[in-house]
Amino acid sequence: MEQYFKEFEVLCRKKTSQRILAILIPGTITLWSATTTGFSLTSIASGLYEIYRFIVYEMFSVNPKILMQVVEPTLSTIIMSYIAVIASIAVSFVLAFFAAASTSPHPWLQIVTRGFATGLRTIPDMVWVMLVVPAYGIGVTAGTIALFISGTGLLTRSFAEVLEAIDMDKLNALKAAGANWIQIMGRGVLPQFLPGLTSWSLFGFDTNIRSSAIIGMVGGGGLGFAIQSGLKLYRFDVVTMAILEMVGLFIVIDYITDRIRRCII
């Protein structure tokens, strides 16, 4: 029995030593790290106050004058996205008939057109605007062209998939009834194609609005460029207002496109 208590006492001493080392070693490392880096609770407390002051007095010290400064970039973003999606729809509408298996005149033409559209879409918008800026300069023109290029790739593939989903039995029935090509397109293809075209076009516009925020920061104009300029000039009040405008624009555009999509489709 006495031997048992001795062994128990030795075991307790070992555990106590291990616990001391488990506390002492991390504590020593922490103290050394704090001393080396100049860490202190006082600096944390003062830093928290500086964060509070920065958020309240600099980021959110907005006024009507600052609001007017971001109105023009907001309008530029909307116009840029709208023009780009209209041009993309016009080009993609034609290319889709060559990219769809059901309407392409030759399989090789379908492969080439699909590959072309995939290549346009694979390259990010930011890369496109960086390639366009040297030719057209910083501004809305470069952003519009970049959105048009990437949007054409997206809509061409999407429109082609809509065409491939068309019910061919209706087209065959029109052919059997003696309808010509124009009648087949007007009564067979377009009625089935228009809902998908509308839905994807609205999605393309919504995507352009969101992408414009990114491409604007690398020279594409609009709200993204306003944010980038504000950051460089340390005008955080302008940056905050531009971000709030951007979020509000996203919400409004998303609501409008959703309502239009539900009414038409």
Automatic annotation (TrEMBL):
Topological category with respect to the lipid bilayer: Multi-pass membrane protein
Single GO cellular component term: plasma membrane
TM region(s), chain numbering: 20-45, 79-100, 126-149, 209-227, 233-256
InterPro entries in UniProt: MetI-like (IPR000515), MetI-like_sf (IPR035906)
Domain ABC transmembrane type-1, chain residue ranges per copy: 74-257
Listed Gene3D superfamilies: MetI-like (1.10.3720.10)
Main location: membrane
Keywords attached to this entry: Cell membrane, Membrane, Transmembrane, Transmembrane helix, Transport
Keyword Cell membrane tagged: yes
GO biological process, one term: transmembrane transport
UniProt record similarity statement: Belongs to the binding-protein-dependent transport system permease family.
Protein name per Swiss-Prot or TrEMBL: Phosphonate transport system permease protein
Source species of the chain: Caldanaerovirga acetigignens
Lineage: Bacteria, Bacillati, Bacillota, Clostridia, Thermosediminibacterales
